[in-house]
Amino acid sequence: MNAQASSSGGVRDDRKTAAFIAENLSPFPVSRVAHDFAFAREILRTPGVNQGRGVASQDFGNPDHISFFFLDGEPHRKRRSSVASYFTPKAVLTRYRPLMDRTMDELVAELQAKGSGVLDEMSLRLASNITAEVVGLTNSDGRRLAQVLRDLMNKNPALGKPRLYQFLHGIFAGWYYKRRTKRLMDELYFEHILPAAEARRKEPRDDVVSHMAKENYSRQAMFIECMTYAGAGVSTTREFIVMCCWQLFDHPDVMERFLKGDESDQFAIIDEILRLDPVANYVYRQSSIDIPESVSGSPVKPGEEFAVNIRDVNTDPSIVGENPFKLDPERAQRMKNTGAWMSFGDGPHRCPGSQIALHETRVFLDRLLRVPGIRLARKPDLILSVQSQGYELRGAIVTCDRR
User: Fold this and answer.
1) 141 Cβ partners below 8 Å, 6+ apart?
2) CB within 8 A of 302, min separation 6: which ones?
3) Are 340 and 275 within 8 A, CB to CB?
4) Rounded CA gap, 190 and 139, in Å?
5) Is residue 23 predicted with pLDDT exceeding 90?
6) Cys-Cys with 37: which of 319, 343, 351, 374 at CB 3.0–4.6 Å?
């Protein structure tokens, strides 16, 4: 199923992925699932409720080289503060916006020359270019880097399939994917990370690779840091851009409003689309403290695990108002919510690059949808992503007038 019915029993439903996720994805075995906004916010904001599924306890070697994404508490706050300059509004406007414009110039020119394009490949190019700039992987072939990151993040196609399928796939094809992954990992390090690190040792910049080179990160730590940024900055943004295109092509009135609106109007539409179809469905946490008077009505105990259902939280009527499944660009203003609901998480681990992702998406949409003759010739296929606990969108094709 590609989309929900436009209405059911008089209730409008503009979500594209809700039924697919409900049918194919369940949370990891945990004690409790947070479905409402108030309880989710409590779980995500309370000190002592940390990242779940053992993420923070993994051994990455030197503790000083652990990515801030995996830290909690004061160590997380200090490390996150040290990279804050990468994500400021000034950085978006002065460092990343010119690159967004140049990339879109290339993508639009290629699209018009050919007359068609694959949306997820186009969004991958933009997301990879911007993430490479943030990280500092700018001393190698950017197009090849995007392909390597794509192939590494695709990983093993058996993930998420029935256990018998995984077992048989492991016997007959496991060796191939292990060898393939090893080759891609070596290529990422030797062809992209290492040249950037050597360049930054001679001429440091304000980026992640410069920090890693200065602190003498190990090969493993550098690889993990780069892949963490890739997962956060490339894979989710790639999917979300395609989702926005899909929704706007299906809602010409909203597309017209987007193209006629100013930046604030455009961001409101983007936030509303992300509210309905967040790329990641679950965020996991584990409590190390007692919360005897939780807003949920039941006390929280140390060791208890939680899955925050972002999709349910984003459609909680107590926060979003009536018709929670309707695409309504005026919702945030009416409900006096100026953020992106909980689509980027909340609390100390809220996505640090959310503003970059929103600007990338706005620039992509504003340029693509103004191309003469642009239309959606093929809708995307929905694919389950176990890694992101959400969806992927593949194979959507746009066509336009050729030049």
Assistant:
1) 191
2) 287, 288, 289, 290
3) yes
4) 12
5) yes
6) 319
Q: Are 400 and 115 in contact (CB under 8 A)?
A: yes
- pLDDT-based confidence at 172, cuts 50/70/90? low
Helices 252-260 + 263-276 axis angle, to 10: 150
Mean pLDDT of 346-356: 92
222: left (phi over 0), alpha (psi -120 to 50) or beta: alpha
- Which fold would CATH assign to domain 7-399? Cytochrome p450 (1.10.630)
The DSSP letter of residue 300 is: B
CA of 155: how far to CAs of 74, 106, 144, 149, in Å?
33, 28, 17, 10
280: DSSP letter: B
In 293-353, alpha helices (H):
310-313, 317-320, 331-334
Q: Please determine, for residue 251, whether its predicted confidence score (pLDDT) is greater than 80.
A: yes
Nearest-10 Cα torsion for 387, 389, 394, 400? -120
| Residue type present at position 42 | E
Q: How far apart are CA 120 and CA 113, in angstroms?
A: 18
Q: Which of 343, 337, 353 is nearest to 276 (CA)?
A: 343
Check residues 71 and 242 and name the one with the higher pLDDT.
Answer: 242
CB 400 within 8 A of CB 372: yes
Token pair belonging to 367: 């340029």
- 56-63 long-range Cβ contacts below 8 angstroms, 24+ apart: 60/220, 60/221, 60/224, 61/218, 61/220, 61/221, 62/217, 62/218, 62/221
Kindly report, residue by residue over 284-310, the tens digit of the pLDDT.
999 999 999 899 889 999 999 999 999
State the pairing for strand pair 116-118/375-378.
Answer: unpaired
- ∠ at Cα 133 (130, 138), nearest 5°? 125
* N-terminal to C-terminal alpha carbon distance within the chain: 36
Look up residue 240 and give its two tokens. 């979300």
Give 60-68 contacts, CB < 8 A, sequence gap 24+: 60/220, 60/221, 60/224, 61/218, 61/220, 61/221, 62/217, 62/218, 62/221, 64/215, 65/212, 65/215, 65/217, 65/218, 65/221, 65/225, 66/221, 67/224, 67/225, 67/228
C-alpha 316/C-alpha 327 separation (Å) is 14
8 Å CB contact between 215 and 366: no
Question: How far is it, in rounded angstroms, from Cα 159 to Cα 296?
Answer: 34
Determine the 3-state secondary structure of 309 from DSSP: strand
Does 44 have pLDDT greater than 80?
yes
pLDDT confidence tier of residue 11, bands split at 50, 70 and 90: confident
Q: CB-side exposure of 332: number of CA atoms within 13 Å? A: 21
